[in-house]
Amino acid sequence: MELDKAIEKRHSVRTFKQKKPDWRKIIEVIDAAIKGPLAGNAGTLKFLLVDKSEKIKRLAKASQQSFIQNSKYLVIVCSDPAQLERSYDDRAKKYLRQQAGAAIQNFLLKLTDLELATCWVGAFQDEEVKRILNIPKDIEVEALFPIGYELGKGKQPTKPDLDNNLFFNKWKQKKMSPEKMPRD
Ligand SMILES: Cc1cc2nc3c(=O)[nH]c(=O)nc-3n(C[C@H](O)[C@H](O)[C@H](O)COP(=O)(O)O)c2cc1C
Predict the structure, then answer these.
(1) Residue minimizing CA distance to atom 6 of ligand 1
(2) How far is the CA of 122 from the centre of ligand 1 (A)?
(3) pLDDT value at position 1?
(4) pLDDT, tens digit, for every residue of 115-140?
(5) What are phi and psi of 147, to 5 degrees?
(6) Is there an atom of ligand 1 within 6 Å of 152 CB?
(7) Domains of the chain
(8) DSSP assignment, residue 4?
(9) Higher-confidence residue: 3 or 183?
(10) Which of 23, 113, 125, 132 has the fewest CB atoms within 10 Å, counting from its CB?
């Protein structure tokens, strides 16, 4: 699939078919995620793939979002802050968030490319998620991704328009007046 098409097609999916995806496709998706930019190129992003239905049920409860329990797989994206905190002090928190976002966007586009579907789940009880998955205290759980095949026809939400969200040269300036370039 072309990049533009994947960007256009990607949308959050909260209803899944019974059909179980091939778990190897999900490994491919995680491989695309980990190829994103990383501060200092350090291995500080971790992924957990869950296929045990009992655990998926408990994680749905820990998120208070019942649609999660209808997915066949859950991917949990985590950050290990220790190394970045040593290298970047108080910038580390920002870097961790940004690199997780970059990896997740790769993840979402690759899923779309493979005709799989998900919804970014950011609302959950951190401590409960960690308890279910034996995740150590010092690891940050970034987000959960229930994965499956979309049931029904997806609806593309309206997106913020470019006109009101892009400025040129200074905050709130909406007009671009390109500098004249010297001729060759
Ligand atoms: C950081 C973040 C957290 C989110 N958390 C949730 C969530 O807990 N539950 C949910 O149903 N959707 C969640 N979403 C999905 C958004 O609701 C969704 O991306 C938004 O409505 C735009 O729709 P789209 O993804 O189809 O473009 C989250 C998205 C982001 C980026």
Answers:
(1) 121
(2) 7
(3) 67
(4) 999 999 999 999 999 999 999 999 99
(5) -125, 140
(6) no
(7) 3-148 (3.40.109.10)
(8) H
(9) 3
(10) 23
Whether the CB of 12 sits within 6 Å of ligand 1: yes
Please work out whether the CB of residue 119 comes within 6 Å of at least one atom of ligand 1: yes
Is residue 124 a contact partner of residue 144, using CB atoms and an 8 Å limit? yes
What is the average pLDDT value for the chain, to the nearest integer? 95
Q: 51-83 as b/e, with b when 16 or more CB fall inside 10 Å?
A: eeeeebebbbbbbebeebbbbbbbbbbbbbbee
Angle between helices 23-34 and 92-113 (to 10 degrees): 140
Q: Which of 100, 142, 98 is nearest to 121 (CA)?
A: 142
Residue 74's DSSP bridge partners are 50, 146
Q: Does ligand 1 come within 6 angstroms of the Cβ of 125?
A: no
Is the pLDDT assigned to residue 175 strictly greater than 70?
Answer: yes
Report which of 92, 95, 91, 78 is spatially closest to residue 133, judged by C-alpha positions. Answer: 78
